[in-house]
Structure formats: structure tokens, C-alpha cells
Amino acid sequence: MLRIAVPNKGSLSEPAAEMLREAGYRQRRDSRELVLPDPDNDVEFFFLRPRDIAVYVGAGTVDVGITGRDLLLDSQSAAVEHLPLGFGGSTFRWAAPVGLMSDVSHVAGKRVATSYPGLVSTYLAERDVVPAGIVRLDGAVETATRLGVADVIADVVETGTTLKAAGLEIFGEPILRSEAVLVRRSGEEEPVGLDVLARRLKGVLTAREYVLMDYDVPLSLVEQAVAITPGLESPTVSPLHNREWAAVRAMVRRSETNRVMDALYDIGARAILVTTIHASRL
Ligand SMILES: Nc1ncnc2c1ncn2[C@@H]1O[C@H](COP(=O)(O)OP(=O)(O)OP(=O)(O)O)[C@@H](O)[C@H]1O
Ligand SMILES: O=P(O)(O)OC[C@H]1O[C@H](OP(=O)(O)OP(=O)(O)O)[C@H](O)[C@@H]1O
Ligand SMILES: [Mg+2]
């Protein structure tokens, strides 16, 4: 049985459960459940703190897990990213009181507050920037400068609302762009069953990222139309009862749906229909 660690709380917990549900796995009904066997799918879920998940995976206690890329790097454990999952996106950034800093080199000799000391110290060491110290905080990092325990902070930024409310501003390049990732132990053979899990999760990602587009187009315009909707490999072109026309079906990126429909309409395609994909194996 593949042992899968899933966030029990926090920003990643609900979207991770949702994705696993869409991939056909059982998910817990009660947030106090800590272990959930799913024998039909030959897996067992362990609900753990997202910060601990890479540590368990690195130690081999569980086979794979879902956590944030930032948490994975911060843990410095023997786990590696296997598949990015497209949710839980955030940016990890420097911030300081408005007007004081503009570049990471200014962090030299300053006190840094963060919940991600592993990530921050590696980043600074790679750039030969030596801070006065790193203050590890559990949360509410934005308050650290006002309370005088640090000069700058390094923290997760999603909308930027928390920073703004604390009178801070971002400076320097982003330290990291993060999202939820599937992790496995590094240097090991892939655990049995990981291929099935990854294929199922990729299926969900595809279903979220693409739509199916159907349309009719005069035969003389098929090549032009297919150039607009090349699909993933090759679009399906089928004959219509009216021999002058063909029907085309192709996958299209969800974000491009309207632009593609307009372009097809402009060249003379009609009856353009878009449908959602519920599941996929490519
Ligand atoms: N708005 C956000 N705040 C915090 N973490 C976020 C946010 N959006 C995405 N994330 C990601 O979620 C992970 C952190 O989850 P974690 O559960 O440890 O913290 P949290 O969601 O702030 O929960 P809590 O602080 O209540 O324990 C990181 O990978 C982080 O990049
Ligand atoms: O850019 P924003 O959309 O404002 O989101 C980012 C903030 O959200 C998280 O804090 P959380 O609410 O989890 O509190 P915490 O600091 O106690 O973890 C994170 O640590 C930032 O502080
Ligand atoms: Mg938090």
C-alpha cells in the first residue's frame, strides 16, 4: 500500500483533499481523522502538518506526500519534488518598513524574521550575504519589525494584504515561487504505486487546465482552423452529412477559450461548443 501524507490543516489542506477526491480517492469526512485507509485504491492517507510532511517522506516513514515547495526546501530533508500540483500558489519575499530597503544585499548585517529559516539561510549563503541573525517565528512574522525583534522579514505573500496592513513593502527579487507539490524520497527507487497516483493527479491537472472544443467548418478551411486549434497531438476531424463541411474536436487551454472561439468564428467556423473535461489520462 502506498502511504501518502496529506496536509491536515492550513492553506493546502482543503485543495489537496479536493484534488485527491477528483482523482478518485477516498477522503476523510471528519477533520480529526489522522489516518484513512483506502483499500480499493491500494493507498493509505496520513494527515500531518504540512511543515512535517517532507521530513516524514525524507525519512521514509511515508512514501510520498503533498506539501508546499517552500516547506520542502525549508525542511532540508531528503525529499524531492516529483510533480507540481497547480494549487497553493504563493511567492516567498523580502519585506521591510516602507522606503528602507531595495535589494537583497541590504540584508547584510540586518536581523531577519521568518518562519522559513532553512530556506532563507540557504538563499543568503548562495549570495554571500551575511545577516546579523535569523529570528525563527511561528507566524505573524509581519509584526516582528514593529516589535523591534527584526529589521526585515522573509515570508509567504499571497495577495500582499497582510504586508500592507503592517506598513511593510516588498523589496528585491522573489526568493521563491511556490505551489503545492507531490514529494518523494530522494535517491530511492520510486515506491510501488507512485506511477498510478501521479498519472491520476496529472489527469486532474489536465481536466482543470483544458476544455474540449467542437466546431463545424467548411472543408476548404479545415487546415486554417486546425492551425488555430492544434490540440495536444492532433485534432479529430470528422465528416458531416453536408459533405462541404467537417466537424473538428480539439483540446484547448481553458485560459484561451474565448480568444480561440473568436479566431475560429472570424475564419468562418460555426456551432463552436465548449465542454468541460471531467477526467483524463493522456
Ligand atoms: N495565504 C497563504 N498563507 C500561508 N501559506 C500559504 C498561503 N497561500 C499558499 N500558502 C502555502 O501554504 C503552505 C503553508 O501552509 P501552512 O499550513 O504551513 O500555513 P498556513 O496555511 O499559514 O496555516 P497556519 O498558519 O494556520 O498554520 C506554504 O506552502 C505556502 O506557500
Ligand atoms: O499576502 P496575503 O494574502 O496577506 O497572505 C500572506 C499571509 O498569510 C499567511 O499568514 P496566516 O494568515 O497563515 O497567519 P500566520 O502568520 O499566523 O501563519 C502568511 O504567513 C502571510 O502572513
Ligand atoms: Mg500561516
TrEMBL record:
GO terms for biological process: L-histidine biosynthetic process. Feedback inhibited by histidine. InterPro entries: ATP-PRT_HisG_long, ATP_PRibTrfase_cat, ATP_PRibTrfase_CS, ATP_PRibTrfase_HisG, HisG_C, N-reg_PII-like_a/b, N-reg_PII/ATP_PRibTrfase_C. Residues 49-202 form the ATP phosphoribosyltransferase catalytic domain. Its EC number is 2.4.2.17. Keywords: Amino-acid biosynthesis, ATP-binding, Cytoplasm, Glycosyltransferase, Histidine biosynthesis, Magnesium, Metal-binding, Nucleotide-binding, Transferase. Belongs to the ATP phosphoribosyltransferase family. Long subfamily. This is ATP phosphoribosyltransferase.
